[in-house]
Amino acid sequence: MSYLGLHEEPMRSALLGEHSLTGVDFSGRRSGNGIRFILDGVTYEVTEDECDGYRSSANPMVVTDYPITNVFPAVKVIGSEDADDEILVLRDAETQLEVIRVGTGDAWDYYPYFISEFNPQNMAINKEK
Predict the structure, then answer these.
(1) Hey, which bits of the chain come out as E strands?
(2) pTM attached to this predicted model
(3) Rounded Cα–Cα distance for residues 100 and 126 (Å)
(4) What is the DSSP letter of 60?
(5) Contact 74, 85 (CB under 8 A)
(6) Is the pLDDT of residue 34 over 50?
(7) Which residues does residue 128 pair with via DSSP β-bridges, in sequence order?
(8) Residues facing residue 23 across a β-bridge
(9) Average pLDDT, stretch 8-21?
């Protein structure tokens, strides 16, 4: 099972490798808690599937036209997948630190969990000069 769709084209090509990140928002809509982010001008959304209250996972990632209010100058990021889990990791190309981590931790365990982290302090544009 692939929660985020990282193992399928065209999502794999769209998310892995070098990209330009220009916005991030957290969502709390009817579709569930989650995160939206803009990569190369395309807005992606990942929401939580709450399962049974003990376990949760990421719903498949979707492209959305929902507006993002937290926009910023372009940050070059490198997309990769966490080898042990079903997690997309976006690292700032300059600082090499994680900016976004989203997906399902312990994806193949009895108690998987949804994760959506945004670490703006790790972006080069937020580092003190």
Answers:
(1) 17-29, 32-39, 42-49, 57-58, 62-63, 71-81, 86-92, 98-105, 113-118
(2) 0.88
(3) 15
(4) P
(5) no
(6) yes
(7) none
(8) 38, 71
(9) 81
| Selection from 32, 36, 49, 29 nearest residue 114 by Cα | 49
Is 64 strand, coil or helix? coil
Burial of 10 (0-12, 13-18, 19+ CB in 10 A): exposed
Cα atoms found within 13 Å of the Cα of residue 113, Cβ hemisphere only: 6
The pair of three-digit structure tokens given for residue 25, joined into one six-digit string: 């928002």
Average confidence (pLDDT) over 42-53: 84
Rounded distance between C-alpha atoms, residue 104 and residue 74, angstroms:
27
Measured torsion, CA atoms of residues 117, 104, 69, 126, in degrees rounded to the nearest 10? 30
Cis peptide before 10 (omega within 30 of 0): yes
63 C-beta neighbours (distance < 10 Å), count: 10
Q: How many alpha carbons fall within 13 Å on the CB side of residue 90?
A: 26
Residues in the chain: 129
For residue 103, the one-letter residue type is G
pLDDT confidence of residue 61: 87
The first and second tokens of residue 88, run together, are: 């997309």
